[in-house]
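ESCALATION

Customer reports they have been waiting on this structure for their group meeting. Please prioritize. Original submission:
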Amino acid sequence: MDRPNMTFLSARSLRHDTPWSALPPRPAAGTREAEAVSIGLLRHHTKNALQRILSEVSKVRGLEETREGQRLMLEVERRVMLSAALSNALFGFTHAPGGMEDRLRSVCEATLELMGDPDQILRLAVTVEGDCPVPLRPTALRAAHEMVGNAVKHGMHARLVGHIQVCLSSAEGWTRLVVEDDGWGYCGARDGGEGLDLLRALAGLHEGTTTLERIQDGTRATMDLPHGP
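Update from on-call: job pushed to the front of the queue and completed.
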């Protein structure tokens, strides 16, 4: 019986055009440079960890000989590549960041695919209203990643179909990010758990606020950020 042609995942690294390629240009001295170095170290660590996962999966005896095993290996690699794409959308590792709407959509779509089950049908709607101030954009993107991830992890758990709506609006000195889903809602700690703590910390960087509430048909997470002087 002929064996299918399979490329062992452990025998190849991530593609050269992924966000793990060249380091970004050096930023201005000070905290921006320190942050860039920290992100670079985290990226390097993450790259090594993900490649180790690929290597360990490929070592399972007979895995590549079955259709289910091939599917598993391809799915692991797909999620590794999604993680890389998400990092690029969040931090712009290998190219200059695009427009805010494009970056927000990329972050939300990659998060949805990364966190969701392949058999789920999850619809995503992303809208941007107004012009989000440049200093607030990284916070908004990271918050959207966390909010959408929580919506998939908690709200869409064990559901085949679901809908997530993301809206970023800026007007009259404030920027608001709202993520709504029609899922089960959050079932963790009463105070929202680690995810909400991270969102509160992000909002606190700009003296903003974060709320999580049940609504009639699901859950709503909101972050309000005041514009600087």
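Sent to customer with the following note: Confidence is low (pLDDT under 50) at residues 1-29.
Escalation resolved.
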